[in-house]
Design goal:
The protein has 171 residues and is an alpha+beta fold. It has a domain of 103 residues: Roll (PH-domain like). The strands form two sheets. It has a four-stranded antiparallel beta sheet with strand order 1-2-3-4, covered by helices on one side. A three-stranded antiparallel beta sheet has the order 5-6-7, with helices on one face. The chain is elongated. It starts with 33 loop residues before the first helix and ends in a 13-residue tail after the last helix.
Length: 171
Amino acid sequence: MTSPGQERPLEENQGTSPSRHAGCTAAREGTVEPITLTVAAVVGLGVLSWAVNLGRNRLFTKDVPVFRASRWTKGNHIWRTQVAVFPNRVVRYTPRLFGHFEETIGIDQVASVSVDSSLIFGDVIIETTGGSQPIRCHGHFKGDAEDIRRQITEAQGVQPRLHPQPQPPVS
């Protein structure tokens, strides 16, 4: 303690700018708080994952309409399966983190197309003439599933047959 006539010694922090926390030295140059680095890293990873997701979910073709499965269905939460019906083939395209999976069937190889629909969503089942496993396009809205079936049926009607039926002789 000091007596009334004596002056108190000058403390270290006296005369400098007041700080909220006595232990903090906010005036240091070139230092960044760890929480700031953590927040910046989380935001940076979020922006990066958003950009990758946006790039991977783009339409795979602009030649014909593309039907995308709903994100609310199993297997389509991150990267949605897409189906496109070309005049000569049907393509099912599933993007992945690295690359994609693409399945193509010629229109003349399609034996039948059926739609298994529920209240909101429907699955398109495409059976082939080769006897292989049918292709099941899961998670499309019911209207889109019906449009896929209609487009495949229309493309089959336009497609010329490779093995035409013999015509009976004209008498």
